[in-house]
Write a structure and sequence with these properties.
Blueprint: E1 2-3, H1 8-15, H2 19-28, E2 33-34, H3 43-66, H4 141-148, E3 154-163, E4 190-197, E5 206-213, E6 220-221, E7 224-228, E8 231-235, E9 244-245, E10 253-254, H5 257-260, E11 275-276, E12 294-297, H6 299-312, E13 316-323, E14 331-332, E15 335-344
Length: 345
């Protein structure tokens, strides 16, 4: 209850009560009690009620934010019935996808063997290894030679090769004949070639060979080369820069006279630079000085010669003697070589 105080004049002004009524009340001299008026909602109270009404919608908005994004303005297709309020769907929970929802799986359309597929999950084809013996996978010629030329499958046959005296100190080079050039000092202008076949029995395969001269008095002038099937195996001077390699045989050079014609003839005072095919050492005397021949082509080098014989279907040694301008050029003393040939049994 509230009591009227002596400050009623202030109350009267603030409450708007008529002055006559106020005077009558004072005249009565009594204390008048007023019942408390009902509390009016304050502005803050109104805000609280509005917030209470808005909060459920705000929670719904939060749930919508957590759900997968829907295209703007999209609605469910009209099934013909009235729209029913949405029910709680456990599939709307975060991380749960309805069964009838299409999911964009980047691996769904991948085929085995595609760049992004897992190699361990892709079955490997049953590919036979080379030389496995299948009817559709025969041995390569190189592998076949390796198998044929194993030590347990081979034997050594000895032959003697003779290159007779071709007129040393008597004739000189046949300048101007055939594809030989004319006399020119210090230039490779002419040559003489001599050929000797290596005897092989029918059905035998050559797997390598070695040669040795049985004397140490071999003599020649100016330069000398020895070839097997035109592949250079020995020379008194290294001319390989003028020749091409045989395509099938790495490190094996093909002798061709037109490539050598016109090249510079090493002088008598020039340091000797002999050449031997393969990794084994060879022997060849220096020009115009007596000495002996020795060369061995076995193992990998022998297989190269075997492959060359297989490609050309022959086994042939050729001795080439060159010259520039002297009557003693293009000549050699008698050369007798002991030839040991490794062949299949």
């Amino acid at each position: 209850m509230l009591k009227l105080s002596s400050h009623m004049s202030c109350f009267a002004k603030s409450s708007g009560i008529a002055l006559p009524l106020l005077l009558a009340l004072i005249a009565c001299g009594k204390n008048i009690a007023f019942q408390d008026p009902p509390e009016l909602p304050t502005p803050s109270g109104e805000l609280e009620e509005k917030e209470a009404e808005v909060k459920p919608e705000a929670r719904g908005a939060d749930q919508t934010a957590d759900a997968p994004n829907e295209p703007a303005g999209s609605t469910e297709p009209d099934s013909g019935g009235s729209e029913e309020p949405a029910l709680d769907d456990p599939s709307q929970e975060e991380g749960v996808v309805p069964d009838d929802t299409q999911v964009n799986d980047p691996t769904a359309d991948q085929q085995p063997g595609s760049p992004d597929s897992t190699p361990s999950d892709t079955p490997m084809p049953d590919t036979p290894l080379p030389g496995s013996g299948g009817s559709d996978d025969p041995l390569s010629p190189e592998l076949e030679l390796i198998n044929l030329c194993r030590a347990e499958n081979t034997e050594t046959v000895t032959h003697t090769i003779v290159f007779d005296d071709n007129g040393l100190d008597t004739f000189g080079c046949p300048w101007g004949e055939g594809d030989n050039g004319d006399i020119s000092d210090g230039v490779l202008t002419a040559r003489v070639e001599e050929i000797s076949d290596i005897p092989l029995e029918a059905g035998k395969t050559l797997c390598g060979f070695s040669i040795n001269s049985n004397v140490e008095t071999l003599n020649y002038d100016d330069e000398l080369l020895l070839t097997f099937n035109d592949a250079i195996v020995l020379s008194s001077h290294n001319y390989n820069a003028r020749f091409e390699q045989i395509e099938e045989l790495s490190g094996v050079f093909l002798y061709e006279w037109p490539q050598l014609l016109g090249g510079m003839n090493p002088g008598p005072d020039e340091e000797p630079n002999p050449y031997c095919l393969g990794e084994t050492a060879c022997e060849i005397p220096r020009t115009s000085q007596p000495g002996r021949f020795a060369l061995e082509l076995t193992g990998e080098d022998g297989l190269k010669m075997a492959r060359l014989a297989q490609l050309q279907n022959r086994a042939q040694l050729k001795l080439i003697t060159t010259g520039d301008d002297e009557t003693t050029d293009c000549r050699h003393s008698p050369i007798t070589l002991d030839l040991e040939v490794i062949v299949t049994k």
